[in-house]
Amino acid sequence: MKPEELEAARDRVIPDVVAEGLRVLFCGINPGLMSAATGHHFARPGNRFWPVLHLSGFTPRQLSPAEQDELLTYGLGITNVVARASARADELTEEEYREGGRLLTAKVELLRPRWLAVVGVTAYRIAFQDRKARIGPQERTIGDTRIWALPNPSGLNAHWTARTMAEEFGRLRAAADAAAAAGD
């Protein structure tokens, strides 16, 4: 994709992939320019979301960003804390994160997923004003929806490998499976 095509995607909003009663609603920070240009979540080639989703057992094969709607068949969905696209997450303001947290809360109250998985603990901390949050399950809930903070799958997040990310995503998958088996 040409640089001018990416730049033209700045501030675009891409549709959520959602339905009521999902097992897990994954929540990115905000769409990158590649995602906004293609209309597909986590579309940048270096992003590890799709490989990690498969490695952790959420999907039986690695989906491509263009296959994002197939997530719904697995009880999974995708949204974002901040809807507008940017080249980097550091272009977002704290107010955008906080407003995103308010809008995300309303979305979760409406859709009632079993789990909300925020991919990016820093985004979670700002959006929900919980400065001490760590990767893993959170004490906070939104109604009956439990929350899990996951590592950011961006290729820029060098602290986590695909393998260690898949382990953490796998912990969430096991918790979601256990809750489903228990009828929660």
Automatic annotation (TrEMBL):
Alphabetical UniProt keywords: Activator, Chromatin regulator, DNA damage, DNA repair, Glycosidase, Hydrolase, Isopeptide bond, Transcription, Transcription regulation, Ubl conjugation
Annotated CDD domains: UDG-F2_TDG_MUG
GO molecular function, one term: uracil DNA N-glycosylase activity
One Pfam family recorded for the sequence: UDG
Enzyme Commission numbers on file: 3.2.2.28
GO biological process terms held by the UniProt record: base-excision repair, AP site formation; epigenetic regulation of gene expression
Enzyme class: hydrolase
Protein name: G/U mismatch-specific DNA glycosylase
Naturally occurring in which organism (per UniProt): Streptomyces liangshanensis
